[in-house]
Design a protein that fits this description.
CATH superfamily: P-loop containing nucleotide triphosphate hydrolases
Number of domains: 1
CATH class: Alpha Beta
Strand order of the largest sheet: 1-7-6-2-5-4-3
Largest sheet: 7 strands, mixed
Helix content: 10-25%
Distance between the termini: 9 Å
Mean pLDDT: 91
Number of strands: 7
Low-confidence stretches: none
C-alpha cells in the first residue's frame, strides 16, 4: 500500500490505521532517511496504544513501554539502530528474544541495518521525503 502524508498529524493517523489491523508479536520495520517521519509514525502507533508520549531512542537505543489498554499487546519496544555501524551478534540475539514474545510489538527505526535478519511476518514501512512537508509512505505486509 502506498500513500502520501502532508503533515506529522497525517503520518500519525496512517500509523494508527496500520496498528488497528496488526496482531501482537508483530515487528514493524521502518526504513528511510533522517527526518523522513519514522519517529512521528511511531508516535502514532503509541497514540493508538494509549501512550501519551513517545520519544526517539536514538541515544538510548531502545525504549520499552507498558501497554494497558490492548487485549494482546503488553509491551511496545521502540528501537533505533541509527548509531550502529554494524550490529553485533549479542544485539541481534537480544532483538530476536524481544520479537519472539507474542505479547510484544516491536518497532525498529533504521531497519535496513538488520533487514536480512528480520522475521518473515515483519511489516515493512518505507518513508520517502518528497518535500519539506510531504512524504511518500509505502507499507508492505
Amino acid at each position: 500500500m502506498e500513500t502520501k502524508s502532508n503533515s506529522a498529524t497525517n503520518t500519525q493517523k496512517i500509523a494508527r490505521n496500520l496498528i488497528s489491523n496488526l496482531k501482537s508479536g508483530t515487528v514493524i520495520a521502518l526504513f528511510g532517511d533522517l527526518g523522513s517521519g519514522k519517529t512521528t509514525f511511531t508516535q502514532g502507533i503509541g497514540q493508538k496504544l494509549g501512550l501519551k508520549r513517545i520519544t526517539s531512542p536514538t541515544y538510548t537505543i531502545m525504549r520499552e513501554y507498558q501497554i494497558k489498554n490492548h487485549p494482546s499487546i503488553q509491551k511496545l519496544f521502540h528501537v533505533d539502530l541509527y548509531r550502529f555501524k554494524t550490529i553485533s551478534r549479542d544485539t541481534l540475539l537480544d532483538l530476536q528474544e524481544i520479537w519472539s514474545d507474542p505479547q510484544n510489538l516491536v518497532v525498529i527505526e533504521w531497519s535496513e541495518k538488520i533487514d536480512k535478519f528480520l522475521p518473515q511476518n515483519t511489516t515493512k514501512v518505507f518513508f520517502e521525503i518528497i518535500n519539506e512537508n510531504k512524504r511518500k509512505i509505502t507499507i508492505e505486509k
